[in-house]
Amino acid sequence: MTRICSFIMLSAAISLSAAGQPQPLPFGDPYQGLDVSTSGFSFAFYGGSSWRWAYEYQFAWNRLKKKWVLLKESSSHFNSLAMEATFKNTEIDATELGEITFDKFSYENTDEQKKWKVTALKTYFYDNPKLGGPHRKGYLVKGNMVTSNRLLKNFAEVSFDNGKEVTSGFILRKDMEPVQ
Questions:
Q1: Domain residues for 98?
Q2: Within this chain, do residues 97 and 159 fall inside the same structural domain, yes or no?
Q3: Within a domain: residue 109?
Q4: Is residue 124 part of a domain?
Q5: Which of 53, 64, 124, 169 gives the lowest tally of CB atoms within 10 Å of its CB?
Q6: Of 104, 131, 164, at which residue does a domain stop?
Q7: CA within 13 Å, CB half, 54
Q8: Model pTM?
Q9: pLDDT for 132-163, tens place per residue?
């Protein structure tokens, strides 16, 4: 609890001017601020050049464990010259993230890239890794090889290179197996 209070106080002190108004941090710092509510807190980052990105992490207090846990991760990516055509938004909730406490949280992906082979006859790409959620039109077929960038409970964030272009998204982990 002390760590979280120190983080909140430091964040508030850095992002507020003497007049109490939010101020951008120097040197292009992507930190956008901290929101605190009765249900928890969230902090956000935004940056990029022609390709822009944004991330927000929401934490809630787990009364049983007496720890702050990651409730949701949201991200957006788009090209500033063609925002409507390139905008992608992804939300990953705690059921896919697993239980990540604040003291174990890292915004950096620590998963090792790994090669996988599709074992299902057909598996679809998803923008948001949610069981029962809508899938995209794009799919992979049995024998396709992908590289995982991140593993979640039921999904893997993967890239597929067909030799002409690279397609990225989430696919179901049950539809593939690791290549040794």
A1: 2-104
A2: no
A3: no
A4: yes
A5: 64
A6: 104
A7: 15
A8: 0.79
A9: 999 999 999 999 999 999 999 999 999 999 99
